[in-house]
From TrEMBL:
Required for morphogenesis under gluconeogenic growth conditions. Belongs to the gluconeogenesis factor family. It is found in: Cytoplasm. CDD domains: YvcK_like. InterPro entries: CofD, CofD-like_dom_sf, Gluconeogen_factor. Gene3D superfamilies: CofD-like domains (3.40.50.10680). Keywords: Cytoplasm. It holds the Pfam family CofD. This is Putative gluconeogenesis factor. NCBIfam families: CofD_related. Its main location: cytoplasm. It comes from Nocardioides kribbensis.
Length: 332
């Protein structure tokens, strides 16, 4: 008798979600709802670590550490809905006010940096925080090397509108007034987190997006060992499209544009499913047909669902997104 495959769908699945900031927070909140319900039995977040602003940027500059902010947000997203989880999530996300040097710092950032200093190990420290919170999954950095995002941007020089200018820094790239044509990392080949690479290779599903496309999603494909794992993994890759353009970073972008940029940066990435919100796809037949053609060119399938909040904001609703994830995993 042939032994059951690691991809046996009668069992719960191993999922790795990649991204950063609020986009990854939304994915993890949704996926956390499926943990322990015979849908997901192993959940890992792999987080972009190139932030240079706010509390993270200050701690990075003072201590020479990875920026902890997006790691903190991922941990908070994995906290449970019970009193313990809700309380620790609030503690982790608490931002200090006042007029002194602590103004703007976040409790979770300080906790993570404290454990990094005490233990001298990025992964071990994050695992300890996860244990304290009772997190429903593991949080890992995409790389162990502090880095900056650089972008080639068109339209910043009024006298030469087609000229390309290099913009450096996550904050600067995310708020540029020009049109981003490509992004890179500096250093160009940062050391990938070995545990993140192993998790991607062992996963049943990999979720990429939503989030800031150039500064949170695509950077994962710029880390050589992590990119190789994403291309070679047997996991089914799900790309979750954003609900709206992001002024400064993806101004004027629709679903087709997001996919086109992803293809330009990672033409060898095999995508299984593209998940889009019904309202973002639009009601025009031609608009949807164009997206379907783009998805088919990737050899993928398009799943359109109602995943946005009802309040009109460009935010994913965790319960609706969870239902879509569950449907996607059950149908494959």
């Amino acid at each position: 008798m042939t032994p059951p495959s690691r991809r046996d769908h009668d069992r719960a699945q191993s999922v790795v979600a990649l991204g950063g900031g609020h986009g990854l927070f939304a994915s993890l909140q949704a996926l956390r709802r499926l943990v322990g319900e015979l849908v997901v039995d192993d959940l890992t977040a792999v987080v972009t670590v190139a932030d240079n602003g706010g509390s993270s940027g200050r701690l990075r500059g003072e201590f020479g550490v990875l920026p902890p902010g997006d790691l903190r947000m991922a941990l908070a997203a994995l906290c449970g809905d019970d009193e313990w989880g809700a309380t620790w999530s609030r503690v982790l996300q608490h931002r200090y006010s006042g007029d002194g040097e602590m103004r703007g710092h976040v409790t979770g950032n300080l906790l993570i940096v404290t454990l990094w200093e005490l233990l001298g190990d990025h992964v071990q420290a994050l695992d300890w925080v996860g244990r304290l919170l009772g997190a429903s999954g593991r949080v890992l950095p995409m790389a162990l090397t502090p880095m900056d995002i650089t972008a080639r941007v068109r339209g910043l020089d009024p006298g030469a509108p087609d000229a390309l200018t290099t913009v450096r820094g996550q904050v600067e790239v995310a708020t540029t007034a020009g049109v981003i044509t490509a992004v890179d990392l500096d250093p160009p080949a940062p050391e990938a987190c070995p545990e993140a690479v192993a998790a991607v290779r062992a996963a049943d599903w990999v979720v990429l997006g939503p989030g800031s496309w150039f500064t949170s999603v695509i950077p994962h494909l710029m880390v050589p060992d992590l990119r190789r794992a994403l291309v070679e993994t047997e996991a089914r890759v799900v790309v979750v499209l954003n609900l709206a353009e992001q002024p400064g970073e993806t101004g004027g972008f629709g679903p087709v544009d997001h996919l086109a940029v992803l293809a330009e940066h990672a033409p060898d990435l095999r995508i299984h499913t593209v998940l889009a919100d019904a309202r973002q796809v639009g009601d025009e037949p031609g608009e949807r047909a164009l997206l379907e053609q783009q998805v088919a060119a990737h050899g993928a399938r398009l799943v359109v669902g109602d995943v946005a909040h009802d309040d009109g904001s460009p935010r994913h609703d965790p319960d609706r997104l969870a239902a879509c994830f569950e449907s996607v995993m059950a149908d494959s």
